[in-house]
Amino acid sequence: MGKLNGKPRKKSAEQPPNNTGPRGPETRTRRAFLKTAPAMAAAAVVVVPAVASAQGTSDKPVKKVFRGPNAKPPDPANPPMFNGTVLYGNLVFISGIGYHQPGDITVHTTKVLEQMKAQLEACGSSMEKVLKVNVYLNDLKDYDAMNAVFKGKFGPEPGVRTTIAAAGGIPGNSLVEIDCIACI
Question: By the 8 A CB rule, do 50 and 143 touch?
């Protein structure tokens, strides 16, 4: 049995079942909603900014240069041309990595990807979190051999990739240079 005006009511053939109000299922739900709506609206106003702040959406992202633990700070009188790793919000930008030692394309690609993995992990990311990769080959004939090493290094769902053969070659005698953008 339900209650009507605080008093138990008796079931009759004309009365609706227990789980509804006297005028149908919408009446009780609507009244309960209208009684609690102002309090819920006030709570939502308090909760939304807290959630946005916790997610970092209310703060403007800041550019941070990532340097390894053994890196010395740059000389202000002679600033670098570029940085190797920059963080912006939850994104990681790694500039082109080359391998400047003797070896074929498989050695160069392996060493470059190992260094990229180490840099990503050092700043809190991983190969699986890479969103975009650019591959610059010294010679397009190395495309298949580079792919053989590259395949699977970025997990089962790799990011997007662009591959080109650089006209004039890669600086520093590297057979490949790879850069990436990842998330943390």
Answer: no
Residue 16 tokens read as: 């609706």
Looking at domain 63-76+83-183, which CATH architecture does it have?
2-Layer Sandwich (3.30)
d(CA 149, CA 114): 11
Confidence (pTM): 0.67
The domain spans of the chain are: 3-54, 63-76+83-183
CB 174 within 8 A of CB 166: no
> What are the pLDDT digits (tens) for 48-92?
444 444 455 568 999 999 987 788 888 889 988 899 999 999 999
97-154 pLDDT, tens digit each = 999 999 999 999 999 999 999 999 999 999 999 999 999 999 999 999 999 999 999 9
User: 3-class SS at 103?
Assistant: coil
